[in-house]
């Protein structure tokens, strides 16, 4: 076992980009955009706090590639350079303290709830399960022309992110969004070149990567967030995931972040995790270990890490190259510094439950409660780790009405 720890630097093999340590602030939905879907001073303050907080890499929440395709009402959209100065301010704030800042770029596909946009699109016109579909508009299948147009939108947004000063982009191919829908045989039942075999279902992501690389060149970092599995019958499987990641490695992707599940199966929150998984902390560690036996691509493993000992053990066994942290960084923006200085006590992140099963069973308050913590940081206030989920619910309903739970995404 080697002695690598979270404090060691890491250099990407494809372009010699070096990170000062192995800690990654994983993407979280901030819901801090303006009404016109632009970055705001609150967002600048939040990312400056994370940059000062010590992580080697900070990844933004969803930035959408099309203003007509939003995951939630306060998503940021980057599709032209009309307000590029605002994005430059965001990049400047988030790159302080020798921090890398990557923009996560995304298209929701049909995973957009009623009232957010006028139309839902998908690889195929396949509905969600009935208890979930009632919250979504009916989707229609994309035409080949539309598919190619979305590919170019991803490339355009990546090019603009580079222009604004971000040091990389992460393509969001997990959690049931459009790329994840293309990868899933459950949601992609096309009979043309974009559906069927895993090779065909992978084509949409592969073409997005090629288009982005053509726009940004070889020295700009491009990563992908992808599921280990959808954890659904007839869904995207571990075998599919291993194939896709091996192909991405061959194509030259710089960094893979492993996650899992969708909003139909919320594995991303550790829901229904096995006792052995809880003990080792990382939700997808076993998958990462198997993956590392087949591919030499740099990995970020996100979800479940709470103690420095577990983080360092995952690095030292070679299961992962980076430790991804999300919820801890929403409560303690300087958590990375505390870890690096050995000042961090073992962290316990409680499950956010209101007592109302229709909310708790779908982890709706997990998103809203943590978003409120991010809002406090963005306003220059301290977080409230012991804030009552019930009071959070009352505040949310008072401010936004019950429809807010139909518009939250990560």
Automatic annotation (TrEMBL):
Oxidoreductase found in the keyword field: yes
NADH:flavin oxidoreductase/NADH oxidase N-terminal domain: residues covered: 8-337
CDD domains registered for this protein in UniProt: OYE_like_2_FMN (cd04733)
Sorted UniProt keywords: Flavoprotein, Oxidoreductase
GO molecular function: FMN binding; oxidoreductase activity
One Pfam family cited in the UniProt record for this chain: Oxidored_FMN
Name this polypeptide is given: NADH oxidase
Lineage: Bacteria, Bacillati, Bacillota, Bacilli, Bacillales
